[in-house]
Amino acid sequence: MRLNPLLALSAFALLGHASAMAADPPVIGLVTKTETNPFFVKMKEGAVEAAKKSGAKVVASAGKADGDNAGQVTAMENLVAAGAKTILITPNDSKAIVPAIKKARDKGVQVIALDSPADPADATDALFATDNYKAGVLIGEYAKAAMAGKPAKIITIDLLPGHPVGAQRHNGFLKGMGLTTFEAKSNELAKPSEVVCMADGFGDQAKSQTAMENCLQKVPAVDVVYTINEPAAAGVFNALKKAGKDKGVIIVSVDGGCQGIRDVAAGKIAATSQQYPLKMAAMGVDAGVEYAKSGKKASGYVDTGVTLIAKNPVAGIDSKDTKTGMDLCWGKK
Amino acid sequence: MNTMTTSSTPSPAERKFHLPPVGTFGPFIALLIACTFFAFQSDRFLSGENLSLILQQVAVVGVIAIGQTLVILTGGIDLSCGMVMALGSIVMTKFATDLGLPPAIAICCGLAVTMLFGLVNGLLVTRLGLPPFIVTLGTLNIAFAITQLYSSSQTITDLPDALTWLGNTFGLGGTNVAYGTVLMLVLYGIAWFWLRETASGRHVYAVGNNAEATRLTGIPTHRVLLGVYVLAGLFYGLASLLSVARTGVGDPNAGQTENLDAITAVVLGGTSLFGGRGIVLGSLVGALIVGVFRNGLTLMGVSSVYQILVTGVLVILAVAADQLSRKGVR
Amino acid sequence: MQTTSTRPAVMKATGLVKRYGQVTALDGADFELRAGEILAVIGDNGAGKSSLIKALSGATIPDEGQILLDGQEVRFKSPIDARRAGIETVYQELAVAPAMNISENLFLGREIRRPGFLGNVLRMLDKRRMLEESTARMQDLKVGIRSMTQAVETLSGGQRQCVAVSRAAAFAQHVVIMDEPTAALGVKEGNMVLELIRRVRDKGLPVVLISHNMPHVFEIADRIHVARLGKRAAVLDPKKISMSDTVAVMTGALKASELPAECLA
What we know:
The structure holds three protein chains of three kinds.
Chain A: H1 3-14, E1 27-32, H2 38-54, E2 57-62, H3 69-81, E3 86-89, H4 98-106, E4 110-114, E5 126-129, H5 132-146, E6 154-158, H6 164-176, E7 195-200, H7 205-218, E8 224-227, H8 230-242, E9 250-255, H9 258-265, E10 271-275, H10 277-294, E11 300-303, E12 306-310, H11 322-328
Parallel strand pairs in A: 1-2, 1-3, 3-4, 4-5, 5-11, 6-7, 6-8, 8-9, 9-10
Antiparallel strand pairs in A: 10-12
Chain B: H1 22-41, H2 48-57, H3 59-73, H4 81-97, H5 103-126, H6 132-151, H7 161-164, E1 169-172, E2 175-178, H8 179-197, H9 199-209, H10 211-216, H11 221-247, H12 258-268, H13 280-299, H14 304-327
Antiparallel strand pairs in B: 1-2
Chain C: E1 9-20, E2 23-34, E3 38-43, H1 49-57, E4 64-69, E5 72-73, H2 79-84, E6 87-90, H3 102-106, H4 116-120, H5 127-140, H6 157-171, E7 175-179, H7 187-202, E8 207-210, H8 214-220, E9 223-228, E10 231-236, H9 243-251
Parallel strand pairs in C: 3-8, 3-9, 6-7, 7-8
Antiparallel strand pairs in C: 1-2, 1-4, 4-5, 9-10
Helix pairs in contact in C: 6-7
């Protein structure tokens, strides 16, 4: 993959001015899952911002697509060769990336996992991540409370089979709803009988709309719809609106991007679990700067937090309003 | 002095086992079989509302597939179609919202951009003689990057009604049909007529079937190829409009799998990847086959993984059937 | 009966020169094609045979020399110029589109449109008329293919070449040039094509036939143009000269001046 050295070079060129600030700025590598997902775009921006403030240099790279492990391995090797003393990585494949992590750590490089852990989790020095299972639980609890004890007919519009993040959010949601589900470690999507339709929208708005339209043909009435992320929720809302069924349906999601919070404020999404990619990135950069300064490595798991954002609060559930959500959101405000 | 007669004894080539020409009706029969199967699995399947939905769901890929059919008929392939479609939708929506241009102008600008990409593809293929696979692989990435940069990776919302008008429906025979569906059918009709009944349309087939022979008859093959790529760009742009109308937003992350989806539709429809053979209506049937399976399997509660598996099997069957009906099995 | 020596020249070329870098392909070559004849052009590899034909069909532009068509000087910049001047060429590689039918191939590049609105505005093709014309032309040339709507790829190699020859004959006004038309065919198929070529000549179109196949040449040619070392070595009468002597002239073992006068045509 010849693209990575080029990416590294261009990142160096772009951040050239940062080097003027410190004598020898610490180089921090960032390897995200993909270039395209807005979540990682924001993470990268957050890292660059934090680096500017503390006089470090961030070199960013990524896999080619969700699940591309080889690309991330190459990226890590190139970053170590380019002099990165700390590497922040959101692993595409939590098991397969471990040898590459070990190689880097053996060379004295600090490796911190962001957003998703490696497997085993202690393969990295530290983990700064959203608890995706907890994110699911929060929105599940909200939906359950909003149903006020009535049994709910549920539709889930998921990512794709076997994806860890998709499974954690899905299973966490079902747990929050008080239904039979799998634990956080599982990559399988649970399907209790209350889930009347389960379809994959691949996190894409148009494809999620198609999936929801097809589900609505199967089961004409629904109470709660779980969606893997906010673009999927937008597609689901479209499908419901076109069928004239959007009134009273509780749509829940995860992400907390600014567009998603706007959709919550507009009443399209009932509640969403907001996560903080910028915080993950900033913490990672700080850890990198600290390591370069004092040789002290970060350690352990830091939950970067998940906040339930809802327009209409429900009794017994702790949530924040959309104004807070907008203040903290990632994306274009 | 021997007179020439039609060869009544079959030549060795003809003695092999041949399927009757499945290229023409095979895909349609496959679609009918699929529909029959799903009709038995769920009584919702054949309802007017469900069928109208399927037509709306395949519209974007369906229209992209028209452009893709043209390119494949010339023996080429266009991997950039999905990304160009996404770029077109971003241009249309941003021009209408950020720049405040009247929707009609914004739409035309989007079409101009997609046709420009078609022109670039065509020039690289004809002037520099580069293989279409490589060229469109490059323009795919360029279109993607421009889309992400120009939109800052944000979806564009709050669109004027005119941009989403094609998503509106009208009543027909007890169900609701979207205007976008009508547009898709009209575009297919125009493409089918052009390819079948006009000289320039037949030249597309000729170039794909034997480019050298076509050149020797005096037909300007480079102009035909260039025209095909630009025309394909126009269809991608129209698909952009359909995409915007369907989702109500300009989505910079749309179109990522549409290139393979369109190629699948074209192959399932019986068009040969080697060029020179195929019917554009087949691509509509191909797109419908995929849409029917996706809808039908969801109605049956079957995981989407099986839909992907079925699509893969169908593609191989389609290509094999085409080969068997033409070349026969030894 | 008019002997070939008194027939007018349809196409004439004098002093053609063509250089490709260091190599001189045509070194002052002459050429003459008379009305109503089949002129075979033979020569060893590198003799300048294909360069001569390319110059005559417009595929290359000669550096020096003159080409006259019906007495008028012509300069071809491309094969299309030659076609417009009424010269059609049949190529060795089967220049047909296999998936398209015979009628379509015959009219490829010269399609007939429907009259009136359908043709002028909608640009619709008059498929029925093209079919009728194709059937008529092929019957005229006694080519025994029954259906014009069958795809060319269902035909044998000989039949396909007949389609290509018929196409050239249908549209040529002055000259038909055939470049090794039977080279890729078997014996029976080759004979089929030769028959057709005779019929084309009998219809009044002179034919230039490039061939390596001596038996074929001796079977249908009226005169034989021997190319050697970029020039015209001799023009021979196949009825008077033997095949082996012809080959000798071709290789240079025998010079034209050493031949009895009656062998020259």
